[in-house]
Design goal:
By secondary structure, the protein is mostly helical. The chain contains three helices and no strands.
């Protein structure tokens, strides 16, 4: 397990743990990742970086809203070829 940096688990049943706190701790240990990595965006490092992050977030939000706009407001059904072409365009 050390080679792959995996966490080793005790594969015994929950009924073998007698306390509620022990069962809760076991659940929390198995529901969390092996390690926590933090990523610092440094969003406010410079005005250019802030503008680029805001631009990326706005483009992703526009792409998401675009799908709902086409399907709801324009009454285009999901099986329409226009939706397929639009999805292919966004995935390229």
């Amino acid at each position: 397990c050390r080679f792959f940096a995996m966490k080793s688990y005790q594969w015994t049943g929950m009924e073998s743990i007698s306390t509620t706190k022990g069962k809760l701790m076991r659940f929390l240990e198995q529901a969390t990742p092996f390690s926590w990595e933090s990523y610092e965006w440094h969003m406010l490092e410079s005005p250019k970086r802030l503008a680029s992050i805001i631009f990326i977030v706005c483009m992703i939000a526009t792409a998401e809203v675009n799908a709902f706009f086409l399907k709801y407001v324009l009454w285009i059904p999901p099986s329409n070829p226009l939706n397929v072409i639009r999805l292919i365009f966004w995935f390229l």
